[in-house]
Amino acid sequence: MSVVEVKIINQSVNPLPAYATEGASGMDIRAQLDSPLSLAPLERTLVPTGLFIELPAGYEAQVRPRSGLAIKQGITCLNTPGTIDADYRGEIKIILINLSQDVQVIQPGDRIAQLVIQSVEKCNWIPVEQLEITERNAGGFGHTGKK
User: Are the C-beta atoms of 57 and 92 separated by less than 8 Å?
Assistant: First the structure.
């Protein structure tokens, strides 16, 4: 596994994003709030983190939901995975939605999402008149059946 160095400014009172376990792919990031935030059912909001990063060229950061938050409170991230491009320098903010039937409360410092650093490949389009035929070909959603 390779390790990439990423510059970060932490204007929050929270620790830097960190991997919870040795084998974790994503680093937990925390809410930078002055007071608890209540989310009504189906309400969405933008939660600040106080974090600013400078990714090296050729990398992106992906914002992903935390599974525990989703199953226990019904809170997940919208626009998932959210992409933070290498040339973005603004504050990282997380779009959260409450999919439960109850009001949910996010406390200052709560772990609200995961951040995954990925390398990015660029592509050059090659316009053609025809694509190679495969066994699947144009078979779309559910084309292989239920079993």
Answer: no
Query: Which residue from 68, 116, 72, 74 is spatially nearest to 92, judged by alpha carbons?
Result: 116
Instruction: Please give the mean pLDDT across all residues of the chain.
Output: 94
3-state secondary structure of 29: strand
Q: What token pair was written down for 88?
A: 């973005």
Cβ atoms 100, 76 nearer than 8 A:
no
Q: Count of CB atoms within 10 A of residue 30's CB?
A: 25
pLDDT in tens, 8-67: 999 999 999 999 999 999 999 999 999 999 999 999 999 999 999 999 999 999 999 999
Residue whose tokens read 């090659």: 126
What's the residue count for the chain? Answer: 147
CA distance 82 to 61: 8
The answer, as to whether pTM is greater than 0.90, is no
Please name each of the domains of the chain with its CATH number.
7-119 (2.70.40.10)
CB-facing half-sphere around the CA of 109: CA atoms within 13 A: 3
Phi first, then psi: give them for residue 87, nearest 5 degrees: -95, 5
